[in-house]
């Protein structure tokens, strides 16, 4: 029932945990600090304690992971299901998540050097990758039928994906628009808002009235529009906000001013 | 209260196919009635926020920052227009799906969402501007009341945008057909209500000092 | 509740156009015209900003316009005019309670 | 209408066995209830009015109680009647009463009759409401009542106070700029006291009630109903006592930890006595010995800058040591000024910004002229006229133990870690601050 | 622990036949066991859960009440510190009103509205489940304040500025505000659900004026909730923003007006008390006719007066603010409007008495309660009318006289009616009657205890005892009656204990076969819920009932002969459905309502302790809603008809969209 690697990692986790607690008490912990992760009492040398606890948690996590996936070992999987032959599986499907993961790691590294914003982008990318890639991996192995796999994955992931994707997709618009507006003058902002809205409306009318415009062209227009928002937004953010006259109240100067 | 007579659309045996409730005693759709009830209750929510704003907007100290210091009527008028137009596009989306035109439906749904997002962008711009000018959430009582009222409205709009985009995505994936027109209608009701609340807010908060 | 029969199908004719026949939908063009009316009204409201009107007069001009816009959006865009009276009743009930209660509230606070 | 059986058994049977007995029981209970409620010790009793307004209220509500009682008797009587007349033990197959569905005229009748009864009540209600809210034009005696956690302050002004014409920065909670002071004159109180509202009898006293922190409610049951003390608002109210005496009150709006310990009394005196009291209260406090007074005067001069202690250090007088009261006065100036004001003792260094959340602590100028303190929960004097020293010492020793206050933020009086000699001196000082009240006021302050 | 639980067939693109490969993400199908309760969307199970939760919270609030009474039994009580006392009485009030009276009302609403209108379930079964779970997690969240630093301590109506962060720095009031927001969502959603049910799902022939009085009262209640909950939502948001984000809504130094809170609260608060009492009125209106063998006297007036109370209840709120300084004009107006609300209520009381007049009264336990309610409620109602005399109220308000008023209407009017309802409908819900001897003990203890507890409070109030005081000093004359009151409270506790004993004993005896099943119609009742088997089968009725008049069930049992005397046509057993129709399609269970509900307290804890906690809460909420919406309508294998759009999601109504996905039959 318990796989080999589970036993290994679980053992390591227990060992690390014991080491952490011992370490905690021997370097000056008191009360039940080392036992309660520092909630009720001190843990002694915090760095070492943290490292050991970290090792314990990582090993524990890995152990759980491996026992869930039966060490990715067909015999173990078959034994768990109580059948002779493990169920057939298709080979792993191609996926672009590793590519995105690469961008994420790069952003992470760059961000450490350049700016925290980029670092956060990297963190965000990697979180998304972790979830999506893991789900894809699971779905790939669920059944032998790619269609069913896809439906399974959709069933699980759509409740989060749909709203998040919808929100992200549209997020370019308010963020971009607001940046542009903030860089414009007071009267300019009125014009900008009106013009953008008019353009959007105009394009919509055109597309709606001409059903023969192909799907791809429409998709291109939409994509282009989205990119325009993002580009304009980034440009405007770089240009910076216009000067706002302070009217009394609290001081809230623009960033970098 | 007499039962309302409504033409049924199909043989009595299946008087529920087009999204209406089973054996609906009034013949109207369950979900639509539910949405209208919800909108009725929302009137009280926004009424309370508007009343709070009205009571508090003039109770600020002599030199403290107030409505006339920050409001930018021309801009707010522009964004009101935008929201108004989004109501039009919404109703066009509905009429499209009701006659089965899924493509037009998508076009208008997306447009509505984009126009709504422009409105939200305008709100972000406005709020940031006010903030730079010295009106924060905690600055004074006018700030708290104003941001709460318009913030609640903005959150309602944002939720509406997400729902519209969700509909768009479903339609794009081929899951939103004429038979589900009522779903679009109900989200449309929500969207129009949000617009109507803005009509009231715009007049009472911005135009009447 | 009647027991469910297996032989149902959603006949396209049961909704869509048959709907249109039973309910009275404005056409798309009509909707655009209504939107233009609303835009004009809004422009009128906004124009009061350019003139120097204050106090009771301003209120007397703006509030009726606001009510008319409200009614148009509710009646046409939200389809209340063409739908079952039940919807109007529910919504108007909420609206009436809200307006009355909050007006009383503002009166107690001597707002006017 | 035949009764199938006439059971006098079972639980409902009790009512049938002796309806008279049941009524007698209820009646006895009711009478004894009223009798016991008339027992002594009912200082907060609302049914014993001692002032004209309270009288009006009493005269309004008693008939209403009677009407309500009659209606109740009818309903309960009706219920018992139903039980007696129409109860059965078992249903038989065929025994059905007449299936009456309603009687529209009857129902309209018992819609209209209660409405008419209520209309009559309404008329009387509105008329008493008018009188309760009518105030004299003469503002000569108007007192500002300020509630804060957890005691009451009373401020008297020369010529009275009218919120429409005056303002007093000492009671403003809101930002001074918000308060519309345009066209109003500022007024300072001439007497500030705490816990006991002293008034002349037979005169309508206008009260202007406000609060410095949270909502409180000022209530002297024997004299009038209550009025909430809301921060940021100044609410008019009035009070009038028929006879001299001490009338008890209680804060009746939940205001936090020691809401139950926020009490006050109205002390009504004859006109002559009131004039004497006024004069005594208006006068600033002084030290008890010339030595103390000299030291005090010099301290004040130092504050004012008219005496420079550095010029001639030898001229600086030492703090008085002979008299305990004066020693206490010196300690008071040192330790208590950050919160308490005693005019004549420390008004030169008191900033008006007590280190309290409510920015105020009781004015102690003539502390011992009051018979209760700390929100009216402790009596300063025993019934025989001696001072209750242990309680006062306990108060100074550890106030939070005597009266719960929040540990967070300055609310209530903190534990100042005073030493026993200091406490002793302070007690002497406090006892010297005012004229001991009349004996009958002291006895009437006792609750029993 | 493996995620892969079963061997899976290699198919050709169709969803596999077997249910479970979709694992935990298929529609649950549990028929019994705890899973069936956790995933249920059946209005009856939900009603039972509401009732059980309400009863448990009643014990909690009751223990808090007993602690109050022990503290106040003697002067200078020292059992509880001032701090603890303030928390205990606040939590007692909040628990009793929001976590007892409202859910018990919801229990009856949920169980009986569909039955009484002849429907199979409510309009939105999953939404119904969500209402319950939302209420439960909200109630637990609110109660968890005890372990997280102390309960709320600002009084049940939490007047600002005392409840602002400056004067209530602990977390108690945050739990109050956020907990009530969560339970408010439950009530609002439930109101939408039940109104739609009553309006849209009545059976054939059941016009609105043929619905039982209970359904009418519950309908009015739902409307009151629909419109009142948003107002307290606003108030609680303002308070939360003040406390958490430094807003200035109730900071007097910034220019705020504390009366704004009072108004917003009581605009909700007064309709709220009618929300509490109308179900009770409805219950009594069902019991009295049954045990008088007569129809309710003046059905249209009963319905009309209920509607009138619902309307008029909106115009009286400031009677709670008579001494707050709203000005003599407002006081006069509200005084008058409050007085006149006594008129429709009086109609009800008198109609009940008139129903009994000329009837054949059988004093079963439910009837005992139903008779006590008009009398006890009248006591409370009349003291309410004395409050409406606003000058007199300046003496009465914030004293125990008010406590007496509302405990009479709440306990004598509401709780006793609910107990009557328990005894009345227990056989219908569970299949057996509760023991009637124990029931009579229960009743008498309760009646005597209640009068002993709340009667003397009138005297105490008039003698000047203030509310919300953690102790009173000797010498003011409060000692004697406080002792009586405290003794009375323990007598009520005994009565509650007897009820619990009754429940346990009767259940045990029934399970052992010592008491017979009650059958569909043990009381010879009048309305539709009695026209089916007991306990009510999952599908409610075997076939659609065609209703030809009020009290349809009664008229199928009894007719009139030529002398216009009542004769029996059929027995209850004959008329009632057997409950054996297995072909009625039922809404499928679902766990998404629970998932969505669980997100809410997480957001709550996040707002109080650490904003990061709101993230998992928001994920649960958002993901839960979308999962709900996209849920397949049913077990993909079971054939189903056009029920896809029976279960639309909250506001999104995409279920029909989701239905297209997985193999439609
Ligand atoms: C179940 C809940 C319920 C119900 C039904 C009522 C019903 C009524 N209530 Fe009560 N009330 C509360 C719950 C309820 N109340 C609560 C919880 C509070 C306190 C909140 C707090 O401060 O914590 C409160 C407080 C309260 C106050 C504020 C007191 C104060 O704080 O100063 C007032 C004042 O007017 C009032 C009045 C009334 C009136 C006039 C009715 C009427 O509806 C009663 C009508 C009924 C009758 C009158 C009896 C039957 C009629 C007849 C037999 C006909 C003949 C009658 C006449 C001719 C008069 N109530
Ligand atoms: C539904 C409403 C409801 C109900 C039913 C009750 C029921 C009771 N109430 Fe309460 N009460 C309120 C609502 C209610 N109350 C409200 C709103 C307030 C105002 C709060 C405020 O001021 O903010 C209040 C305030 C209040 C006070 C005033 C506190 C103060 O002002 O300081 C008092 C004082 O006696 C009191 C007493 C009681 C008593 C003795 C009961 C009794 O009926 C309780 C019955 C007892 C039990 C139910 C106990 C049964 C339990 C057991 C037997 C336990 C053992 C068993 C097991 C564990 C299995 N209540
Ligand atoms: Cu002050 Cu209660
Ligand atoms: Cu009320």
TrEMBL record, chain A:
The keyword Transmembrane helix applies. Keywords: Membrane, Transmembrane, Transmembrane helix. The chain crosses the membrane at residues 6-28, 49-69, 99-131, 160-182, 188-209, 216-239. This is Unannotated protein. It comes from freshwater metagenome.
From TrEMBL, chain B:
Signal peptide: none annotated. Pfam families: COX3. The chain crosses the membrane at residues 33-55, 75-95, 107-125, 145-169, 189-208. It is found in: Cell membrane. Residues 1-209 form the Heme-copper oxidase subunit III family profile domain. GO terms for cellular component: plasma membrane. Keywords: Cell membrane, Membrane, Transmembrane, Transmembrane helix. InterPro entries: Cyt_c/ubiquinol_Oxase_su3 (IPR024791), Cyt_c_oxidase-like_su3 (IPR000298), Cyt_c_oxidase_su3-like_sf (IPR035973), Cyt_c_oxidase_su3_a-hlx (IPR013833). GO terms for molecular function: cytochrome-c oxidase activity. GO terms for biological process: aerobic electron transport chain. It is a multi-pass membrane protein. Belongs to the cytochrome c oxidase subunit 3 family. This is Unannotated protein. It comes from freshwater metagenome.
From TrEMBL, chain C:
Residues 1-23 are annotated as: Disordered. Keywords: Cell membrane, Membrane, Transmembrane, Transmembrane helix. The keyword Transmembrane helix applies. It is found in: Cell membrane. The keyword Transmembrane applies. It is a multi-pass membrane protein. InterPro entries: Cyt_c_oxidase_su4_prok. This is Unannotated protein. It comes from freshwater metagenome.
From TrEMBL, chain D:
It is found in: Membrane. It is a multi-pass membrane protein. It holds the Pfam family COX2_TM. Residues 38-136 form the Cytochrome oxidase subunit II transmembrane region profile domain. Residues 138-280 form the Cytochrome oxidase subunit II copper A binding domain. Coiled coil: none annotated. GO terms for biological process: ATP synthesis coupled electron transport. GO terms for molecular function: copper ion binding; cytochrome-c oxidase activity; heme binding; oxidoreductase activity. Gene3D superfamilies: 1.10.287.90, Cupredoxins - blue copper proteins, Cytochrome c-like domain. Its EC number is 7.1.1.9. The chain crosses the membrane at residues 60-83, 108-129. Keywords: Copper, Electron transport, Heme, Iron, Membrane, Metal-binding, Respiratory chain, Translocase, Transmembrane, Transmembrane helix, Transport. Residues 323-434 form the Cytochrome c domain. GO terms for cellular component: membrane. Belongs to the cytochrome c oxidase subunit 2 family. PANTHER family: CYTOCHROME C OXIDASE SUBUNIT 2, CYTOCHROME C OXIDASE, SUBUNIT II. NCBIfam families: CoxB. This is cytochrome-c oxidase.
